[in-house]
Amino acid sequence: MQDKQKAIVFGGAGFIGSHVCDELSNRGYVVTIFDVKHSPYLRADQQMIIGDMLDEKTVNDAVKGVDYIFNFAGALQISGVILTRTEVVLRTSTMIPTSTLFVAVRPTV
Predict the structure, then answer these.
(1) Residue 1: which pLDDT band, with cuts at 50, 70 and 90?
(2) What is the pTM of this model?
């Protein structure tokens, strides 16, 4: 019997990411959600990792043995307040996607 394929969804606790996680689970994938906050949408058949995507060791450990990586991480809005701080916007829109890309192209993923 073939093992189920594994997927990790960065930003899976958000609205869009959570729907992707649910669809992946419905299609039989083993799903891990990676986010800075606990997902209110977490299902019993999904795993959760709470962490910072800029923490290279945590991300590397999270993607070991994963077949697919999805990235929906971002913070345009936190608690109803649109972010205007340059460093926060730069971090979430540039640095995090770049770190995900670097991890995804490693031969172990």
Answers:
(1) very low
(2) 0.75
What's the confidence (pLDDT) of residue 77? 53
Q: Domain coordinates of the chain in residue numbers?
A: 6-104
- 31 near 24, Cβ under 8 Å? yes
Instruction: For domain 6-104, give the fold.
Output: Rossmann fold (3.40.50)
Q: What share of the chain is helix, strand, coil (3-state, %, to 5)?
A: 35, 20, 40
**Max avg pLDDT among 70-74, 87-91, 96-100:** 70-74
Q: How far is CA 88 from the centre of its chain?
A: 18
- Residue 106 DSSP one-character state: S
Tokens coding 25: 């689970």
3-state DSSP assignment of residue 37: coil
Q: What is the CA radius of gyration of the chain?
A: 14
